[in-house]
Amino acid sequence: MWAVARRPRWIALLLLALVLAGVFAGLGKWQLERSIANGKPLPATTETRKSLDDVTEPGRAASESIAGQRVTVTGTFVAGDTTILIGRSGGGTYQAIGHLVDTETGASLPVVIGWADQRRQAEAGGERLTDGQELTVQGRYYPAESPDQDAYSKGEYSAVAPARFVNTWKAFDDRMYIGYVVADGTTAKAADLGAIADRAPTREVRFDWLNLFYAIEWVVFAGFAVFLWYRFVKDAWEREQEDAREAAQAAEPTPVRR
């Protein structure tokens, strides 16, 4: 059989099969790397408190790698721009969201100040911080939520969505952080509100089994490409053997009966 395999036609087909196998193996490696990358835990550095400006900058979308990062930011809250959200986790029926202007950059930043069971108390708590004095807020920084995540209608909102705040805040100069801070108990106490129950983000590793399945699938395809070449060569060899036997039988003299 290998005498057939060494013919130029089948050598060329073998090279093509090897190229296809290499491509399939490369795709399998890519899928395997994705399954491992998707399973990596978030970095533990989020528990090291940093200045907000060391973590991100205005206009930059917050990535999942810094979700829950402990930060410190100094600024002033804008009077009249307190927003009340409902239906959120962390405590209370109503949560007050303040409009903080970062002293360092002059950019706007939504800050979840605290919660109350009455809307009037939540509004009063948010406005209690808008006396023009600089405040240092400590908390965790999270990626911005989308207005599409709002679960309520009729003027009630549930998402911390900077994309909506740009239309509702009175004092806004188009510079904004694309994320928000959940303030700790110190800021909530200063506003006479309940502190938001916030904790470190989970560090669980969730392996992406779907990508692993795809990786195995591509490896199977790679092996099948080489096997297909082998099957074609073997079929050609068997046909030649069959043709040779038939030719030999045809060449044999026919016995003469007496």
Automatic annotation (TrEMBL):
It is a multi-pass membrane protein. Signal peptide: none annotated. Keywords: Cell membrane, Membrane, Transmembrane, Transmembrane helix. The keyword Transmembrane helix applies. Residues 40-63 are annotated as: Disordered. The chain crosses the membrane at residues 209-230. It is found in: Cell membrane. Its main location: membrane. Belongs to the SURF1 family. This is SURF1-like protein.
